[in-house]
Amino acid sequence: MASLKKTKVIDPPCRLGFSTTESVRRRIETYRVLTEDAHGVPYTTGELIALMVTAWMDQDADAVKAAKVLTADQQARIDQAMGAKAEA
Asked: How many CB atoms lie within 10 A of CB 43?
């Protein structure tokens, strides 16, 4: 099992709505229960998904490197997706 560590992070929560399949939901809930039992710590589904996605993305060395040198257009598109007004 991956080494996911529950930590207290000062990062405001946001709602991200998306659809998935029943089988993916079942796998996520199964993983949540197994992780709780392995670590002896309760996790919400949202906390677990955030930990899983972060760990997965941190392992993509090319993406980590590219994220450090985003173009102005890339940053504007990210800001737009996050609901912020892109600077002109």
From this structure: 18
C-alpha–C-alpha distance, residues 14 and 24, integer Å:
21
pLDDT tens for each residue of 75-86: 999 999 988 654
Report the run of H or E that residue 35 belongs to, with start and end.
Answer: helix 22-39
Q: Which of 15-19, 37-41, 43-47, 82-86 has the lowest mean pLDDT?
A: 82-86
Domain segments of the chain as ranges:
22-82
Cα separations in angstroms, 40 against 4, 9, 16, 45: 12, 19, 27, 15
Phi, psi of 8 (to 5 degrees): -90, 115
Using a cut of 0.85, tell me whether the model's pTM lies above it. no
The whole-angstrom separation of Cα 18 and Cα 88 is 30
